[in-house]
Amino acid sequence: MTKLLLNLEVARLAADDYVGFTFFVGCMAMMAASAFFFLSMSSFDKKWRTSILVSGLITFIAAVHYWYMRDYWASFGESPVFFRYVDWVLTVPLMCVEFYLILKVAGAKKSLMWRLIFLSVVMLVTGYLGEAVDRDNAWFWGLISGLAYFVIVYDIWFGQAKKLAVAAGGDVLAAHKTLCWFVLVGWAIYPIGYMAGTPGWYEPFFGGFNLDIVYNIGDAINKIGFGLVVYNLAVLASKKSEA
Fold it and tell me: Whole-angstrom distance between the N-terminal and C-terminal Cα of the chain?
């Protein structure tokens, strides 16, 4: 009975409920992207199939969570913080794995992958603690989360990942640079959203903003965009190997 009422409520989303609309569109867009990535895997050499598989997993996991977040929003009219962080703690480390996978051609070691995964988990867990568990010390948890984010940015733009990308050159370097821009610009909406949703010295600047719409659109662009960059790299590399 509860499920039936929930489904009826979802069906009655208001025409001006733009947050609910972006939850629905985000879910459908990422589900479509997952189907595209999974169905295209057989078109590539084995060395690229794992990268395409990870791209599909990122958007599929996000689509499932967006399905639940859409229902949560429809039922309570509140931002689904818990579901959002569960989504991120699964998908963001996988996005970091993509850097390792495309840089394997230049000799990337698993230590790079685990370093990026660790930093992304620290960034997300501390973000959740500040936003949902210990809001009185949100500034402290936000500081740790922000530091982890900037270390990731440094690693991929100037650190070991950048050196490997330069060594690989060509299409790999171009793809790496595009992914770096996604992290620098696309991921920047997350710390902004954190400051908008938690108390702290930054409250006069960001407090009061409802960034669910920005989160939803940004998530879709970042996750689908990441996958498309990897897909394009796989296409280019496969064409060269056939030539």
Answer: 60
Give the predicted TM-score (pTM) of the model: 0.89
Q: Which CATH number characterizes residue 68's domain?
A: 1.20.1070.10
pLDDT in tens, 72-92: 988 888 889 899 999 999 999
Q: pLDDT band for position 26 (50/70/90)? A: very high
Work out how many domains the chain is built from and give that number. Answer: 1
- Comparing C-alpha atoms, which of 32, 31, 33, 10 is closest to residue 20? 10
Task: Tell me the residue range of the domain where 167 lies.
Answer: 2-242
**Roughly what angle, to the nearest 10 degrees, separates helices 110-128 and 81-103?**
170
7 CB contacts (<8 Å, ≥6 apart)? none
